[in-house]
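Data availability (excerpt). The following record was deposited with the supplementary files.
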Amino acid sequence: MKSVVIGIASGLAVSCGLLILLALWPLATETFVPPYPPAAAPTAPMTTDSPKPAETKADRPTPAQPIPFKNETPAAPKGPDASPKNKPARPPTPGKPAAKPNPDSEPTKTVQTVRETAPLSGDSDRSKPAETATIAPAPSPAPQFSPDLNAVNALLDRLRSAYSEKNLTAIKELSFLSGDDEELLKKIFNYYKTLQVDADALKTTESGVATAVVIRSLENEKGNVVIPSPKWGKQPLLITPQNNRWDQVRFLSSPSGASIDLAAPTILHALPMYAARPGEALEISATITDNAKVAAAALRFRASGDPKYESTPMSEGPDHTYSARIPGSMIKGNNIEYYIEARDAEGNLSMEGRPSSPLAIAVLPSKNGNE
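Predicted structure:
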């Protein structure tokens, strides 16, 4: 009897346990989901897919719009359904696992679209071929003017000859000679017997060759060598081709002969009638005149063979006589070489003798026979 009661009690206990297990079974199988605030609730419907691995903060896509590159304008969505939030989730295909969304695919697509339609200056567009970023070559420089220097030099040689011959007609044929230029040349030719003319270095311009006619020296009626003032002794020229021929020159800026003093001082000098002696001073004098006024006069001297000239000013005396002394300390055994210079206010310089061919006085032995 006791065993029967124990069996009945065990059966009742097993039956009660089964009833309690059946009652709690739905609670055991349900997944607990914590409640979220309304603003952070997920927009896409939940699926029964297996849970994905935990994502880091850098991998988690943000619900905001894709971040554009610096200085770029993000592409605006077109239409109400263009936003990813408004697109319904595509149901998975039966028998095939649902594709996992790639959080970087949509922002990358948007950025590529912006860069293709409106690339910014200075950004490297890697989506285009390399040849689209090539820089256009700089335009080649314009060809420079190349004059016929042989023809130019031949023309200048003809001009030098016309000056030396004082041939005004030939100069007029070789140049565009204005009235003032012609009057200036007439006065130069009347004042001086000979002219030595040269040309400055040639300089190529955009349309021709620039140079200058330079009167290196002249000789007046008294035989003085004259270095003219730069105001009229140097006449700039421009040589341009005419009908592809280099046959004429143009005077650029020749001053009017009426406003310039063309006449240099005149020096009258005669060698002393005696020879110099060592240690004795030697006086040199000359008559110097000018059509306006003599500004300065000087005596340049040296012992024969010395490379450098000494200089002393000449003082004016009566009747336009200018004189200076060569000190006795300079007079030794060698002969004495010298020349005289005179300059007017205009800058014209006259020389009796010249550095390359000076005047000379012989030096005699001393009276006691010692030098």
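Summary of structural features: The first strand starts at residue 175 and ends at 176.
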